[in-house]
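Appendix B. One record, verbatim.
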Amino acid sequence: MILHAGLIALWSPAGWRGVLIEGPSGSGKSDLALRALGQGFRLVADDRVVIWESGGALYGRAPDTLAGRMEVRGLDVVTQPALAFCRIALAARPGVPDRIPAPARVEHLGLSLPLVILPLLEASAPGKLARALQHLGGGAEGAYQGACAAGRRRVRAGDSR
């Protein structure tokens, strides 16, 4: 399946973890990816992402014709070193999030991924994606949102941990 999206990845002890950046044309997907490259992320795919399921996990790569290429709006399509593929651990969509959002998920090919909503053009967006990935644990089952929600429940219950 091919999605109109971008895919960037960040290295972790568990390997490369990808963020699928979804949104309409002009929403800032490539702009976010470009800024994230300066913060340790690697490009996997820009504009179109081929996704597939394997072993209960979602993976993505660029279509052959777009591999290693990135559109920099207002400049040109540029060559950019890219990973051949990666496991997708998180999805991001444009929007204005609640201060402390409820856990959200998105489904692709029958697999559920944690979802973050954020202003893609906000300067802190790449850092927020890195933070979200750091809190994923070993996979989507340890999503940062679930851990955050559990933490809020403990505080509300009076647990000082």
